[in-house]
Fold each of these.
Amino acid sequence: MDRTLLSKVHICFLLFLGLLPMAVQAQVGSPCTAGTQSFFVDLRSAPDATWTSPAGVTRNNGDLCCGASNPDRCLQFKVLFHPDAVGAVLEFASGANPPGHHYWVKEESDASCGTATPLGSPVCISYSVDTFYFVFCEPGNNPNQYIVESVEGFSQSAPEVTVSGCNAILEVSGVFDESSIVWSHSNPYYESFLNCIPGGGNTGCSTIEVIIPDDPGLPASITYDVCADVSAVCSGAFPPVCTTATVLILTPPEATVPDYTYCPED
């Protein structure tokens, strides 16, 4: 083989080997420069667990993450989640809080940081045993205290009790995009009882009226499915979070009073 060609091949091969560690490093692990200030956050105890940093945390000059550059200073939170967690929020607990702050989230095995999320707004997660890196960067060195909160999705009140011919109110609470909520039932007849407050219909509300007809053939209870996205940016990228809400239907007492309807609040 021509000596010049052999040298060129040798040089190219060495350059390729030199690039390999950079490629591997970009795919896994921390998105920050070596030595960046870091906090370990263990939220595995509960799907709605919360962690609070020490007060007065500052960021170090030269600590950079997720493609940030000077004059930014960054810090990272290494977070582990409960299997039932569906989202998380990073926000300030105390300290200067001018508008416009954002944070980034990267799962350990991801190739790069996700899109910026406004501080205090939820991000969606799919459960993994991997570490999630939450990154905050800003110029300057304001001392702050931080909160990392795990989001479990929906929680619901106790089953609502009513009788045939009366109405019931169902509601859910938690962290979710209210405009994406859908209340449903596999039986179209039972689904027709639903009436969002306000607006009517069965979508876009966390509180809904169930208009129970005077029908002796109704079952003792009706359980509705309730699904929604954790936040608007999760739509299509993550499956919706779902729960159920139940109406218990009692048999009204017999009465001889004409034209009188008994409801539980009477």
Amino acid sequence: MVTPEDARWRLRATVLIALKRERLRKFPNTDEGNMKLLLSILMLLLFCSTPIDAQGTRQRRVYRRPPVLIDKEKPSVYITFARFESMRTGSEKGTQLIWLKLRNNTRWPISIEMSGGRTDDPNEAKLYYQTLDENDEVVADRSCHVCSVNNVGPNQSTTFAVPAADLPMNSRLRIRFSYGWESFENRLLEIEPEHFVYFSAGDIPKTLTPS
């Protein structure tokens, strides 16, 4: 059985022999003849660089970039509802919390301002956000004063809590983030465009209420 590699070499050898005979016939051992032979060989090598199968058929090399999105049905970065929690002890006793999950759905890390979470869970953090009313006016600004910029890796998520009072009916919150390929220095200088991920109070399941 002739392998694709054997077919390629047989084709090259056949063409080289044919070129050699043609050169000797048309051009004696001259500089012009040698130059034309060299150019013919270079064109042959370029032609034969494409794989040939056993039947001598040229095969195209197809280079496919990996998709940007891990789940093509979802946005690049999005927030989903996780659960309700009612604080029962400490200074926050009676506070209703809405737990949300921010997910990076790309194949690159994203950067977000964050601080330590309420528990030792490594997938939990304190994220900084703004609340917008139905007219997109900022009604609550929980921006960072002392925090760090950390990465959320590809297909990774971070869970964070928001007081229910910061997400009333007909409002939505937004969190600023940056893609991993953007320059950190340019972000500090506000040269890079701003990106926000949003979560609407209307996306909280209506069958659930804080308890």
Amino acid sequence: MEVLFLTYGSVLTQPVLQSQVLTFIRSCPPGVRFTLVSCEWFPVYRARRTEIERLRQDLAASQVRLWLLPKILPPRNQRTWQFGLDLLFLTLVTFWLLLRYRLRVVHARGYEPALVCSVVAPLFGARWMFDARGVLPEELAESKALPDTSMLFRVWKSIEGWLLRRAPAVSVVSHVFSRHFRALGRRGKVVVVPCCVDAHMFRFDLAARQQLRTQEGWTDRLVVVYSGSTNWYQEFGTCIQVFKHLSHLSPNALLLALVNDRPAEVEKTLGDSLPSGSFVVKSLVRAEVPRYLCAADVALLLRSRSLVSQVACPVKFAEYLACGVPVVATPGIGDVSEIIRAQGLGVLLEGDWESCLRLLQQQLQDPTLKARCREYATRELTWSAHATTWLNEYARLAGEPPDETDTGAMPECD
């Protein structure tokens, strides 16, 4: 079976796509061959041609054809004419690939590729899956503080409704997300595949933990880690406030901020809010992140109360657990918050923060806590647990019998 996999993001420079696209593709059996289309901002595309060719050769060894397309829309920009040209180019390339290789199954990751598929795929009798990783209309509106009546929001909500009516298959990252799409009128099947972790890369290593903590001088510190971007929905300011509360209970606490998104600004923000010596900012390549997560004792996962968070499944949740780190989270983050509550893998900040953090201190005395975090991640949040769900959707779209070993997806918490 051959599958065309489309994403508007970059598998070269975006860690989330490296973990959620490349790791998935590499985990698939040899009988499934992919043609992968990814997009990179043109200045980066031009400057990193050697890396692109190396990645292309690496994927070719796994029988994956890589088409990395240049795009002109810069990151964090929403200029309509630039986006329109990028979408037109993606449409033309999709048309050519479906014609050239006679591909009949397409995985569209995100709203933009799904919009392309809704127009192009029917011309060739191809069937496609709309893989929604978030609610794009709300993400655009909330990031720009636009009202629900804005033209941008209304256009993307109309496109969303069109995709839900037209898509032969739909995949989302949480059961909350599935219910949201059904409330919008989706009548067909919706599968749930959470953001998964590469458990071989992100794993608890006691020796590495002890070595790094000794090297950094953290042997007697309570290391509280924040990993990821500082986007508007991440509530980084709230993370600082939670850390202050935690440092009152544990004066030896240290905030470890692993950020590649404006690290100098993050360091200044922390310096204005916290005493010197109570925080460390690191900007790491992806391969170094697991070692630092292993060195941590607690992780922070705080997000704004919005639909964007309510349907989400943050990648770093699985990465934290895989490295044996319990999580302090806000309620209402997709299925994540209920997993933490039901499995006892950290605490939710409900009501009195001090009481919640005292409960966390009690949990940290449990010698089995790190092992339980790791065990849940490897059982429920890896591609070995979920790849079959997508493979069965591909088989259904291609008219082939599904794999009977499919377990469906992450179980829903009561």
